[in-house]
Design a protein that fits this description.
Layout: E1 8-13, H1 16-26, E2 30-35, E3 38-43, E4 46-52, E5 62-67, H2 71-80, E6 85-86, E7 95-97, E8 100-103, E9 106-112, E10 118-122
């Protein structure tokens, strides 16, 4: 049933206008239209909905992951825009290589948006 349906991420933010600056200016997402609850962005074949919430920053797990062909190139590009990356050396079976986490053939990197939502880029999700 749901395996055949599209899904989208919903991300709480404290200030929608400020969040838009990050998601558009830093991450390069394009807003596809206002939504009654916030702002909708296309990403690949999916969508992300940003909405204002009092529960901003309470999720301590990854909110969104993007599958990319070259994680290092994406990390380097985001660092040039001021993004700081998180390091999780305690993850089992993971080797930390600069800002990249490697486990087998999977390589990923985590960073936070201005509200503390944890985002990820990696080559296999």
């Amino acid at each position: 049933m749901l395996g055949e349906m599209n899904a989208h991420a919903t991300i709480p933010v404290s200030d929608l206008d400020e969040a838009k600056k990050f998601y558009e200016g830093v991450l390069g997402l394009e807003e596809v239209g206002e939504h009654e609850a916030g702002a909708m962005y296309r990403t690949g074949t999916g969508h992300i909905l940003l909405y204002e919430s009092e529960y901003v920053g309470t999720n301590q797990a990854t909110a969104v992951s993007w599958e990319v062909n070259d994680p290092k190139a994406v990390v380097d590009a985001l660092k040039k825009k001021g993004v700081e990356f998180e390091h999780y050396p305690e993850l089992p079976g993971v080797t930390l290589e600069g800002d990249l986490h490697r486990t087998g053939s999977m390589v990923g990197a985590w960073f936070k948006d201005p509200d503390g939502n944890i985002l990820c880029v990696g080559n296999a999700m």
